[in-house]
């Protein structure tokens, strides 16, 4: 049982705890807010890294899936069914615990869906849409793929911006907290620390799942598709199916990030799904090194945190664009070419192979 | 008459106005080493692409043990036990030598997305088996010492061997080799011939496309000659060497 | 719908359609010479418009427009000089990301130079309220300017590519770069020219359309998408088809206004884009087999 591969996760876990303790001790808990938000954005990055770095598919519209997740849970938890309180369907839902009464910001009584139901619904809708878009999209390559995904993201943006019940330009506010095992994902100041840990627990869980996938038979298949799609097919890998599955998986990661950030912020708006947002996600994955999961995570935390703290001022978008350009022009393999565990694995395999050599080769190697 | 391992009937494929493969038919008996030869542009690699499913045929059928497999997707054909190498090596260059071969084990193993993501215990045994089998294969091809190397770092001759190892990992009943001796020197070609014979000794039928006549005449049980996409001769090496049409194609008259 | 209404929509459609066609032609020029799809194409229109607006406050209009075109050409050359010339056989992915990055940089620069206010160039003839009546529809004379300038651009370009040495050299490059170089054509220079030419027609179009649609720093990206849609619709690289495709998209959009809420109009062109990409990426006039064999 190879426990060595869990070292990075444990290290990050320790760092997460250490940072929180330092921040709280310094009385600067407001930093925790940006770190929490950065964590949720990082969920999108993890999924996108799998898609771009391993399956080799670019997506310029992933903010769209973030929005689908966030908006669905926002709408379902803020819809007011009070006017239909007497109907039998609503009564049925109430008894099942899917719909319940709560107070909104202004003290009015609302009858809305429970966050858990909204969560499941949001994921289902995301999967369905990802499948519908994914099936034609994975057949595309290069510029066509980029444009199609960009178009997808923009359609979501236009729909969200132009639809009444989605809040149009103002988005949806008053989203309640998400009860999670006795804690609650919400923006309440008193819950800042617990929310920080929840967000990071989700990120670490996401990293764990992603790492498992990469090391598995499926992960190998994905990397082979990225290496040579023709050869992968000739070796029995159903490239279309794997690309689609990775697309859907990355969409789910993005949606989960969207759902929880919406509950954390208590709101969501069209600014989460602009073309620029999707480009930023791509920029971060590219900077970390397309297939470098830890690199992408590191860059995500760094850049998102700095951006959220306003360090880049009004030049925020320009900074991301500049980063993108510099990386793509001069460091196309990403800035961080950290050895990482894959090389360790290779070294280990080499050692095992050396031990296994049964007979020495007579002829010289070419 | 028992079904051949592979049989193609009147296979045709055109590109625009050019007939790359024109009504080609032949059969590959189980356990044989059969070679397809012909001048450049005669349609040999197109033929391979048609059989392996990478290209759709305009007409004709491909049969495996009597069952039709024309129009199947490449991965399906690999699952059915037909594997191949490529004229220009298509290795997974950013993966290690060992990992390249491990990918070949894909069709014979099961762990899917869910099992992979959750790292379920039963997958550990499967992974171990995949790794061991792959190492054995590398060993039998003399590549075991390079297991941890990046595939693209290998010298050319060993890259060709690696591609063969990868194709063998799929446990094929038919192995299609596209110009295995291309770019190899005299000694490497000799070793390649020995390897092909060894592979046949393992019970794998071999269909190969090749330009190197000494290799072809040496090890083939049967030879098919193509020119301008059409089959012009088929038979044992001795017959082919005496066939006036073949001689004309290679030594004088029109070339493709 | 009455005939006057129909005609009004029709004119509106061919006006915006001719703009989309010009943008698509800009895409095609660069694509044909370099294989690059320049996401920053839309920014050329806005940049040209903005420069023209600023200059027109102290220069006579024709001079301001001419200067805007020349300055934007300079930006096109700058893009080639700063970014494109470093690329040696880049992957398509890198190219896509790079040109997107360039378009964002240009847009952000415009934001910081001119701020986010909406601006308008002076009408070429008349004012915002002058109108001409044609067959019962009332249109601004600027519409005729737009249509006229677009037609002139299309004709001038086809003459340029057919008759001038530089134009023929560019066509040679797009056909077969190696052969062109063997003939002594400096491929590198052709790349620069293509960027400058696309920038020039973009800037001219941007000035022409500004009195009608106004100019704001962030309009470039949606223009680029529509232009790209038109380019694909006609078949990438095919500029004659781009004209027809542009008119088609323009008319489609214009008539959609009569059935769709205004907020969704932009979604129409994106929907068209997705439909084309999913079902017929070679476009209406493209060669199916040829585009299947394309690099991407």
Give an account of the 3D structure.
The complex is a heterotrimer of chains A (366), B (256) and C (296). Chain A is 66% helix and 5% strand. Chain A contains 14 helices and six strands. In chain A, helix 3 crosses helix 10 (239-265), helix 5 (115-137) runs antiparallel to helix 10 (239-265) and helix 11 (275-288) packs across helix 12. The longest helix of chain A has 27 residues, at 239-265. Chain B is an alpha/beta fold. Chain B is built from ten helices and ten strands. In chain B, strands 6-7-8-3-9-10 form a six-stranded mixed sheet, with helices on both faces. A four-stranded antiparallel sheet of chain B has the order 2-1-4-5, covered by helices on one side. Chain C is mostly helical and 296 residues long. Chain C has twelve helices and two strands, in the order ααααββαααααααα. Chain C has helices at residues 3-34, 41-56, 61-82, 92-114, 141-163, 165-175, 177-182, 187-213, 220-234, 239-256, 265-279, 288-292; strands at 132-134, 137-139. Chain C has a two-stranded antiparallel ribbon with strand order 1-2. In chain C, a hairpin with a 2-residue loop joins strand 1 and strand 2. In chain C, helix 1 (3-34) packs parallel to helix 5 (141-163), helix 2 (41-56) runs parallel beside helix 4 (92-114) and helix 6 (165-175) crosses helix 8 (187-213). The termini of chain C are far apart. The chains are: A mainly alpha (366), B alpha/beta (256), C mainly alpha (296). At the A-B interface, helix 7, helix 8, helix 9, helix 10 and helix 14 of A face helix 2, helix 3, helix 4, helix 5 and helix 6 of B.
